[in-house]
Amino acid sequence: MSSHRLVVCASLLLAAAAHAADDSRPGRDPAQPVDEAYTRKIRAYTTEPFFLSPLVDYLPASSSNVPTPQAVIGDIAGAPGKLPYAADVYRYMRMLEAASPRVKVRTIGKTEEGREMIAVAVASERLIAAMDENRARLGKLADPRTISMDDAEADRLVAASFPVYYVTGTIHSPETGAPTALMELAYRLAVDESPYVRYIRDHVVTLITPVVEVDGRDRQVDIFNWHMKYPDRTWPGLIYWGKYVAHDNNRDAMGVTLKLTENVLNAYVDWKAQVLHDLHESVPYLYDNTIGDGPYNAWVDPLLTNEWHMIGWNNVQEMTRLGMPGVFAFGAFDTWSPGYLMFIAATHNGISRLYETFGNGGSAETLERTLAENQTSRTWYRQNPPLPRVKWSLRNNNNYEQTGVLVSLNYFATNKKLFLQNFYEKSKRSILKAKVEGPAAYVLPANDSRPGAQAELLKVMQKQRVEISRATAAFTVQVPRRGGQAGNRAGGQGDTTARRDSSAQSRVASHESRQFPAGSYIIRMDQPYSRIADALLDYQYWAPNDPQTNPYDDTGWTFPEGFATQATRVMDATVLNVPVEAVTGRIVPAGGVTGSGDVFLINANADNALATLRYRFRSADFQAAEESFESGGQRYARGSFIIKGVPQADLDRAARDLGLKVTAAAAPNVKTHAVRAARIAIMHTWISTQTEGWWRLAFDQAQVPFDYISTQEASRDANLRAKYDVILFPPAGGNAQSIVQGMPMWRNPMPWKNSPETPNISTLAQTDDMRPGLGWSGLANLEAFVKEGGVLVTSENTSQFAITFGYTSGVTMNTPTGNAVVGSFLRSRLVDDASPIAYGVKDSIALYSSGGESFSVGTSRGGGRGGGGGPAQRATGRGTPDDADAVQGRPALEDRFQLPPRPTVQPWQLGPVTDDMLRNATQLIPPEQRPRVVLRFSDQRDLLVSGLLNGGGTIAQRPVVVDVPVERGHIVMFANNPVWRGYTLGTYALVFNTIMHFDNLNAGRKLDEK
Ligand SMILES: [Zn+2]
What is the whole-number distance in angstroms between the Cα of residue 716 and the centre of ligand 1? Predict the structure, then answer.
C-alpha cells in the first residue's frame, strides 16, 4: 500500500505543475447564449445536482445553426428512453460536418455484417484545414528514422504540431451511454466558446468513433425498444453482440481477428494519434482504470506508465474539484494483458486509457440503483465514493462521460508539448530497443515445417503494422546454447531456448552459432512498433506469489507457441546486419503441384489449409496414410493426403492459393482410409454464445463450412445423424444442468427474432423463445446421434456436460480450485500419435488452458480412477521405513501369500484390468469402448509454457484430449479450449483432424487384451 501512496503523491505534483500552464476554468462563456430548452432538459434528466458539472450543465446555442443532438434523437442526449441506432448517430455527425467547418467525418471500415464504422474529427477551423500537414509532421514523430533520430528536428516538429486524442464508444453493447455522450461532446467541441473548450479545440484534434461494436449496438437498441414496447414482459439478454463474439470483442487487440479491432487499429495508426481512450460503463460512477493495478505489462515503455498516472490522477483531482462524487482511479484492473482495444495505443507508442462509468445495464430508463458495500466504501484511492442508493439516469452517465473526457482533453491540450515529446521519445526508444534492452530481432526460419502457421503469424504482425524483413542469404547468429535440461523441451514447436536463457543455470552456459536459411523472416526490433511484436512473440511469466491474486484476464499468450510455429528471440545485434528485403502484401508459403504421377501427395503437418483444401474439392477422393511412408526421397508423415480425382491444374491453383506443397507421384504402398468432407454442425445454447463464436470465426477463416444449430434444434430433431457427421459443442454458458434446462420457463416467452421493432436482431440464429434448453429429448437425440456413428466434439464445460449425463464411460474431469491456472499456455505430450486426431501434430505443442482443467481415465464405468500415486507406502509398525512389518507370534509370510508387484500406472493411463474386475465384469468397459487418450499435459517440470501456473501437481501428466468410442460413434473431449481468440491456431488441427477422420477415428488403435 505504501508504495501506491508514493506514486499518488508524485503524480499529483506533476499534474499540478503541468496544469499551471493554463488557467482557464471550466464553465460557460457568459457572452454566449445557451440553448434554453435543451439546458432545462439537461437539468431535468439529471437526478441530483451533484451529478452535473460546470462543463455540461448547459448547452451553448450555436450562432450558425449547427444542429444539436435533438435534431436526430428527438430529445436531448441522455434523455430517458432514447437510444439512437448507429445510423442515427452517424446521420447526426454528418449534419454537424455539413453545418460546421470544425467537423470532419471519415469512414474507417465495415463490420462483419457490413455496417459502417466512422471516425469524427473535431477541432478549430485552423487545425482542420491543416490536418494533412499536421499528420505528416506527426508521422515523422511516430517514425523517428525519417528524421534520422534528430532530437532538435523533433523539437521543431513538436512545436509546430497538435496532438490527436482518439475517443471510442460502446465496444460493449450493453454499455449504451457513449453514443449520445459523444454526439453532444462533438457539438460542444464545435460550438462552445467558453475559454476551456476553445482551448481544447485550438490545440487538439479530438477524434471520435461513437460506436465501435456497430452490429451489437443495433441489436441492443432493438432489444431496448422491444422492452419499451412491452414494458410488462421480461426481456432477453443480448446473447449476440457482434457476429462472432460478445464481451471478448475487447480482448482482440493481440490477434486482430475482428473487423472492429482492425478498423480502430488502422484509424489510430493512420491518424498518428497519441491517445486511445475507450469508454465502458460497468463501475459507479467514473472509474479511470487506466492506472489500473499491477502487474503492469512488461513490454511497454515506462514513459507510458508514468503518463497513465499523470492523466489519471489529474482526472480524479479535477473532477473532485468540480464536486462530482465517485470518481476514482487505481483499483481491481491489472494492466498485464495487451488484449484490450485501448492497448492498441499502449503497444504503438501512444497512451491507452479506459473509463468505466455507470450504466443501467443496457437500459435508457432512469432506475433506482443500490450499490454493494465494496462499491461505496471510502478507500485511499476513492476518497469520495459513490452513494449507496440513488436514482440513476442515462443523462447522469452522459454527464460523467463528457466531463471526464473534456477534463482529459483540456489537460492534454495544456500539456501538449510534453505529450508530443513523449510520443517522439517512446517511438525513438522503440527503435533503440534492438540495441538497448533487446532483443535485436525475432527470426522465423524459412525451413519451418509449418509454413502455413508461420504465414498466419506473420499476417498478425502485418495487421499490427509491424515491418517484416526476409533474409536474402543464409546467415548465422549467436543464440543461447541448447542442451542440458533445455534438451527436454526440444520437442516443443516454439523455440524454447530463449526461455531457458533466463534461468540461472543457462546463464552459465555459453552461446552457440545457429544458421538460418535464406528466406528466413526477420522481425527487427529497431522499428517504431517493435513493442507489440516483442509482446506477442515473447514468453510471459506471472509469478505465483504475485501480490495480484486475481488476474483480470489471460496471463499468457505467446503467439509462436499458440500457432505451433518457430520463432527465435535473438539478442545478438549482428542479426541487424543481415541483408534483407522488405516483405509486403499477402504472405503465402510456396505452394503448387510438382512432379508427375497418378496421385497427388501432401505431407501432413497440421496446417489448417489442409482442411480448407479438403472442403474446396468436396467430390475428390482424399485418402490418409495410416503410417508414414517415403516417396521420391521425401518422408511423408502419418496422415498425409493421397488425392485422386481432381484435375492437376485445379489442384495446382488451389495449392498455390493456400500455400500447400503437392507432389504428383506413384501411389505409395501404405495402409489408408478415406478422408471425408464431413457434414458439420456447430451447436450453441441460448444461454451464452460468447466463446463458441471464436470457433465460428476459425471455421469461417479456414473456409470449412458448417450449419449453425441451437440446442433447441437438437431437441426437436430425432435424426440428427441424417444431417450431420460431426456436431461441435464448443464451451457454452452455464453448467451441465442448465444446458438441458435452459432458462426458467415461468413468465413470458422471450423471442430472439427479427420483427418490425427488432429489425437487426439476427441473420444468424433466431428463436421464438430463448428459454427452452436442450431438454431431455435433446439429450436423447444427441446420444442417438453418437451411437449411430456421429462424432460429438466437446470442450471445457461441454465435456463436463457429456460426463454428467453419462454419454461417456471411464472419464472424469478435474477442475483445480483457486487460481492454479488463469488463461495460460501449458505444455502437452502426444500419448497416441497413431490416432487420426494427432495426424501431423508434433509432440509437445502448447495448449491454451483457461483454468487448468484435465481428465482422469479408467477402465470401469465411472472411470476416472487413473494412475499415479506412486508406490505403496508401508504402514505404521516395527522397524525402519524400508523394513517389512512383522506380526508377532507368527512366521513371516511365504511368497505365495504376497501380493504380486503392482505395475506403475501413469496418470494418463487406464490402469490394469485385474482378475477381480473380470470375474463379473458388469462395470468393466469392453476394450473397444474404452477412452483413448490422445494428448496429455506434460510432466510438472515442463508444464508451464507461458503465464501463471501455481502448483500444477494435479494437472501435470493428466489427459487433456480424449477420444471416447460410444457404440458406432465417438465423443472427442477437450478439457481445454483448442480454439480461442485467434491465438491458438496450433491446436485447430486437433479439431479439423477429428472432423476429416470422423468415421475412422479408431485407426491405429491398439486394444487392450482383456
Ligand atoms: Zn465494458
Answer: 36
